[in-house]
Amino acid sequence: MVATEALAGVAGVALFATPGAGLAELLPAVRAFSVGRRLAYAYLLGVAWTAGMLYALSHFLAVPLRPPAILATAAAPAVAGAVSWLLRRRRLRPSTPQRRRRPWEWLVTAVCAVISLAVLADALTNPVLDWDGWMTWAAQARYVRHEGTVDPTVLTQKGWYVSHPWYPLLLPVAQVAVLETTHADWDDPAFRPFYAAFFPVWLLVIYGGARALAGRTAAGWTTLAAALLPVPAFELAGGAVSAYSDLPLACFYGGALALLLSPRLRPSAGLAAGILLAAVSLTKAEGAVLAPAALVCGGLYAFAPLGQRKWQRRWHLRRGPLALAALPLVLALALLFSWRAGVPERFESYEKIVSWTFLWPGILTRAPRIASAVRSQMASTTAWGFFWWTAPLVLAAGWRGLRRRATVPLLLGAAAPLAVAWISYTISLTPEFIIWTSWNRVRIQASVPCLLLLALALANLLRVADAIFRRPGRRARFQTPSRCTPA
Amino acid sequence: MFPRAVSVLRVAVLALFAASLLVAAERAARSSWTRIAQAASQFGVDSLQARRQALGASWVAAEGEIARAIPADGDYLLVDGGEERQGATLFLRYQLAPRRARLAGRLSEVTDPSQWAALPTSSRWVVVAYPRRPPVLVDRKDFARWLETTLGRH
C-alpha cells in the first residue's frame, strides 16, 4: 500500500460516513444512540442514502454517475445535519457523565479494534481476490462506472457475457461513487476499505442491539464471540476482506431488525429502519424477500402473548412508525423492478441452474440431503471455530432468557435468510455445490438476529453464574435493561 | 439440591462457551497478526505491484497488453481455456472490464471458428482465458491458424 492509495480508501469510507452522520443527526431515535452505535448506523444510513439515491437518479432521470452528482447527493444530508446540530447546540444541556467502562469492556473493545484493523490492513494491501467480487459486484461496477449509468449496455443489450445481470446494483454504485470521487484508476482497489468498514459496523450493530435487549455484560460476550468468528472477518468467500455483498446485507438487515424491535418504536426509528430496508432490497436479490420479512417481524413485536387490549394499544402505537419504515422500502422495490425490467436476460443465468419442478415434493424429499451438506459446513471448525458446537448449548441452557417479546420476531428474522436459501437449494440442479459455495454466507446474512438471541440466553446464564458465585449480601451485578421486561 | 445442580450445569455451559472463545482468540490473533504484518511489510508497494505479487508478473503483463490493444469501450470474444468451474473467464472478464465480452465457448469445444458467424463481426479480438496461466490475445481472422499451431487442430 502507498499512502495516497490508503488515503483514497479512507476517503471512500468518509464519503458515506459523512452524509450518514447528517442523517443520524436528523433522526432523533438514531441521535440518541451511544457514540459507537450512532457511528455504525451513520455508515449504514450513508451508504443506503448515497448509493440508493444515485441508483434512482441514474435510472429514472439519467443523471450521470460522476463527481458532481455524487458529491451533491452526499452533501445534502451532511449539510442538513450540520445545520440541525448548530440550531440544536443552543438548547443542548450538558451531557450526563457516562458510566465508566470496566477493564473487561476495554479488553473486548481492544480485540474488536485489532481484528477490524487487520481486516482494513488486508483490504489496503491486496487486490480483489474473491470469486463474487470478480464475477459480479466489482465487474458490474466497472461497466457502470465506464458508462456513468446503472443501465450500461452490457446489461440492457442481449448477448454480452455478464453473470447475474439482474442482481441489484446498490454496492456497485457505492463502489463507483468511491472510485469517481477519488479519481481512482481502473485497477485501483480504492473501494476495498468501503467493504472492510462493514466489519466494525457489524460488531457495533450487534453490540448496540444486544445491549438494549440483554445488558452490557451479555452484549460484551456476544460481540466478542462475533469478532472472533473466522468467517465474517477473514473468509475470502463472503467475509469482510472480500468484495461480497453478504456482510453489508447482514448489517442493513440486522440493523433494521434491531431498530424495529425497540420496545417504544419512534417514528424516526421507523424511518431509519425503512432506509436500511430499502438498502436490503437493493443489495442482493434475496433482499427483496428479506426486507418485507423484517417489516413483518417488526409488526409481530406488537402481538406478544399479552391481553387483547395491550396488544391493540401496542399495535396502535407502532403502526405509524411501521408505515414510515414501509415507505422507503416500497420506493426501493419500485426502483428495483423498474430497473430490472430493462435487463433483457435477467433470469437466464438462473434458469440454467435451477428447476422449480423440484420444489414439491423436493422440499421434503431433498431435506435429508440438504441437511447433511449443511451440517458438514457448520461443523467445520476452520470456518466457525467451535461456535456452532457451543452456541446451541448456550441457547438451551439459557432458555429462560428467551422468554421475551423480541424472541419470536428475532427467531423469524433469523429463519428468513435460511428459508430463502433452503428453497434455492431445493430447486437447484446441484444442491451440494450451491450449499458448499453459499451456506456460510447465508449464516452471515442471518447473523445479527442469531447473535441477539444468543445474547438473551447469555444474559440468563450470567445471572445464574452471578447468583452462584456472589458473596452473601452483595448486590447482583448482572441485570437486563428494565424496559425489556419479560412478556 | 436438584435446582442447584441444574444451575451448576448451566454455569458449566457458560464456562464451555468461554473456553471456545479462548480457542478462537488464539486463531483470530494469528490471522490478525499475519495481515497487519503483511500490510506493514508492504508499505510503499503500490496497487500494480501488489497485483503482480498476487497474480504473477507475466499474467499482469499479458493482461496489460490486451488492455492496450482493445480500447476501453471496445469488445472481444472470450474463449475459456479451462473448465467452467475454474472461473478463468470470470476473472479475466473482471480484469478487462469495462471492455465488453461475448463468450465464444470452451477452447476444447472450439473446432471450427467459422461457426462463429452468429457472433457479431464487430469483435475483432479473441481472448483466451486460462486458469493459472496468462491470457492470450489473438486477432479473430488469425484464430483458425492459431488453433492449428497451438492445439494441432485441423
Continuous helix count of chain B:
5
Euclidean distance between termini CA atoms of chain A: 53 Å
DSSP helical segment count of chain A: 24
For the residues shown, what is the average pLDDT of chain A? 91
Q: Give the topology string of chain B: H per helix, E per strand.
A: HHHEHEEEH
* Widest sheet, order of strands of chain B: 2-1-3-4
Outline the structure in words:
- The complex is a heterodimer of chains A (487) and B (154).
- By secondary structure, chain A is mostly helical.
- Chain A is 72% helix and 0% strand.
- The longest helix of chain A is centred in the middle third of the chain and has 34 residues, at 308-341.
- The termini of chain A are far apart.
- In chain A, 55% of the residues are buried.
- Chain B is of the alpha/beta class and 154 residues long.
- Chain B folds into two domains: 1-43; 55-151, no CATH class.
- In chain B, a hairpin with a 2-residue loop joins strand 3 (125-130) and strand 4.
- In chain B, helix 2 crosses helix 3 (57-69).
- Chain B is elongated.
